[in-house]
Design brief:
Elements (H helix, E strand, L loop, with lengths): L2 E8 L2 E8 L2 E8 L3 E5 L5 E2 L5 E6 L3 H11 L13 H9 L13 E8 L15 E8 L2 E6 L10 E5 L3 H15 L3 E3 L1
Parallel strand pairs: 7-11, 9-10
Antiparallel strand pairs: 1-2, 2-3, 4-6, 5-6, 7-8, 8-9
Length: 184
Amino acid sequence: MDFYTSIFQRGDKLFVRGYKDGVREKKAVSYKPYLFIPAKMGKYKTLDGSPVDKIDFDSISEAKEFIKKYEDVANLNVYGLTNYPYTYIFDNFRGEIDYNPENIKITTIDIECAADEGFPDIEKADKEITAITLRSNGKSYVFGCGDFYTDDKNIFYVKCRDEYQLLSKFIDAWEHLDSDIITG
């Protein structure tokens, strides 16, 4: 993979999305993390210069069990990152990343709701959603419950019977667009 756009962890797996030669790739990685413990003479050093040995694990859960097993042992410090997507990035994407922004799928989202009696209370979500627009790659996908007409060939309108259908159609389009970056 030339560059990544998203990495997240679920259980022992890291889910990696990115691009190779301009083509999007997705993969699930059974990540084998590592940590460090104090040593008399280690190949590695802590930030303060103390020697440490590297311990490799066969899975994320094995590393977590190790940390839990030794968390109450006095004078045994365990070093290293336990946010494993970051160590995966460190191990696999060192140096300057040569990415092409033209390859990245960016989607802008705009959600409108009823405001006839004032603005909604965002804590309560007390107003009906009346329209959602997704804009991606120069095209707009608009979902609404009212009538809407346009001559613009880059705007696609889906008239919905109610808020439930609007949200359902929106989720279908959201999954289909499969964007790297969401903004709005």
